[in-house]
Every structure is written in structure tokens, then in C-alpha cells.
Amino acid sequence: MTSVTLVRTLLRASRLPERPRERGILFAALCLITLLTATACTPEMRARAYASDGRADWQQADRVIASLGLESGDRVADLGSGGGYFTFLLADAVGPTGRVYAIDVAEDMNERLAHIAAERGYAQVETVLAEPDDAMIPSGGVDLVFTSNTYHHIDDREIYFRRLSESLSEGGRLAVIDYKEEGFMQGLLGHSTDASLIQTELESAGYELVAQYDFIEKQHFLIFEPGRER
Ligand SMILES: C[S@@+](CC[C@H](N)C(=O)[O-])C[C@H]1O[C@@H](n2cnc3c(N)ncnc32)[C@H](O)[C@@H]1O
Q: What's the confidence (pLDDT) of residue 2?
């Protein structure tokens, strides 16, 4: 069964609750997807999944990077770096004198990324193992915390991001990209966060919204700075 057929079947099943066969398929598929995304996938499979869904066609990663206004020598945290979709683009933007901390709670993803960084000669990329409630940004701080498709994974976000603001240098910023609540994975499985919720939570955590872009069809993209009371 292709993924398209699977999604069609799931949609049919959700509209026809009286049909036990479809309901069974829906239940089994949800179990399988949950199992695969939670445990069974290798880092390589997860990295491929994060870059799938024709992402190269819609992500506009170069435009995202340009919007960040990074300079050579900047220090950046890629929070929830995963397969490194943005890590090496960030590393190119800050150059060899800069630093990109590829931060993730998944040690196996970090190991994979460190291996690729070494292979490609990206000495400015350093992996950091985060705690679920602490990004563990190295002392000295960063000019930008960039986080893509990870915001929705973080719990107690007001406390988390208030603490994280202490790791931002003077003039430092926080850029958040997360999926809109559309489609199967994002809508039904909750891999998304509404832009107004991101803004409300981060304002409660002491940030001010300084930019919001709408050029990515599938994702929200917001940039914040810590407020003056910091
Ligand atoms: C969907 S992937 C996104 C990867 C990459 N940023 C991208 O855009 O393709 C989410 C990543 O966030 C990581 N993650 C989940 N909770 C986290 C947390 N509390 N702190 C840091 N990373 C976290 C996961 O291990 C996973 O690698």
C-alpha cells in the first residue's frame, strides 16, 4: 500500500466509522506510524523522513537562511537539528570562523551528524546532547537560536524558552519554524503549532516578535528577540 493509498484509506475510514474493516486499518496504521516514528527507525531513516514529502520543492531553505541575516563568525544553535536539514546551511552562512551547535536529545542523530560534519570538513559544527527540558547551549551564548519542526516537541515551553533566553548574546534572536496544522502528520498527529500560540507563549516567556514571514506554504516562520526586561 503506498502512502497515498494509506492516507486515502484513513480519510475514508474516518468518514465511515460504522465500517469495522476500515476502522481496523486506521487503528493498525496509527499504531505502525507511532511505533516507527518513536523507536524503530534508524537515524538514517529518520533523517530521510525529515527531508521527505518533496521538502526540497517547498522549503525554500536558501530564503529562510537569507531571512536570518547571519554574518560570518556568528554563533548559532540549531535546536532539534535532527538529520541536519538546516545545520550545514547555517554553517555555510556563519563560515569557518563561526560556530553551529547542532543540538538534539537523540544521541544517535547527533552521532550521525557529527560523522557527516567530519566527513565534509565542517569544523564549525559541534553536536550537543540536550536534555528534554534544557537545550544545554554551551557557555558563551549564541547570536541566534534556530529551531525548525521541533517547537511542538518541547514541553512547558514558557519555562523552557525563558531559561533559553539567558543563552542569547546581546542582540541575540530566536527563530522558530513549525508546521501549520494541516495534513495527516501535522494536523491529526499534532506535529505542528499555530503561529498565534507560538507568539503568545514566547511573549509570556519574555520575548518580542520582530519578524514573521509567510513565504513557506506549509510552515510558520517567526523571529523573536528577548524583551527589554531581561
Ligand atoms: C522533526 S525533527 C526536525 C529536524 C530538523 N530541525 C528539520 O527541520 O528537519 C525534530 C527533532 O527534534 C528533536 N527533539 C525533540 N525534542 C527535543 C528537545 N526537547 N530538545 C532538543 N531536540 C529535541 C528530535 O530528536 C528530532 O531530531
A: 37
pTM of the model: 0.85
- Regarding the beta carbon of 50 and ligand 1, being less than 6 Å apart is answered yes
How are beta strands 75-79 and 219-226 bridged, if at all? unpaired
Whether the CB-CB separation of 138 and 116 falls below 8 Å is answered with no
**Contact present, 79 and 144 (Cβ < 8 Å):** no
pLDDT by residue (tens digit) across 23-67?
A: 667 666 665 665 555 555 899 999 999 998 789 999 999 999 999
Atom of ligand 1 lying closest to residue 109 CA: 27
Residue to probe by mutation, ligand 1, list 52, 103, 150, most atoms within 8 Å of CB: 150
219 lines ligand 1 (CB under 6 A): no
When pLDDT is cut at 50, 70 and 90, the band that residue 12 belongs to is: low
CATH of domain 55-226: 3.40.50.150
d(CA 39, CA 161): 27
- Residue 164 Cβ inside 6 Å of ligand 1? The answer reads no
> 50 C-alpha vs ligand 1 centroid, how far in Å?
10
How many CA atoms, within 13 angstroms, populate the side-chain half-sphere of residue 64? 23
Q: Where are the alpha helices (DSSP H) in 36-136?
A: 43-50, 55-58, 61-68, 87-94, 107-120
**DSSP bridge partners of 131:** 134
Tell me if 225 sits within 8 A of 164, measured CB to CB.
no
How confident is the model over 80-118, as pLDDT tens digits?
999 999 999 999 999 999 999 999 999 999 999 999 999
Sorted by where each begins, the domain ranges of the chain are: 3-40, 55-226
